[in-house]
Amino acid sequence: MSDLHPFFHNDFEDDTLVLNAPPQLKKPSLYRVILLNDDFTPMDFVIDILVNFFAMSEEQATAIMLQVHTRGMGICGTYSKDVAETKVYIVNSFAIENDHPLKCVMEEI
Ligand code: TYC
Question: Is the pTM of this model over 0.85?
Fold first, then answer.
């Protein structure tokens, strides 16, 4: 029989059952979702994105938007890879649909 068991394999030369090394499991990485500044996207549009896609209060959203506006970028949140990818995709799609140059990116932590 072939060696399909996760914990053991056969050594046919010695006719022994050998314990496999334990699988090296790694915690999945987290990703920051980041908004980038530009000179054209209206401030209210950015605030709406932060409220609707990142579940922020108006106050939080205004603070992050102003941070992006003054410092060039700001963190919207930290997520697993697929959630971060989805957030980036919906923000960039929504910006394109509304003809704004707003860009959202993600970085591994
Ligand atoms: N700088 C933009 C303006 O003056 C506002 C802005 C904020 C744009 C945040 C993008 O991610 C952004 N209208």
Answer: no
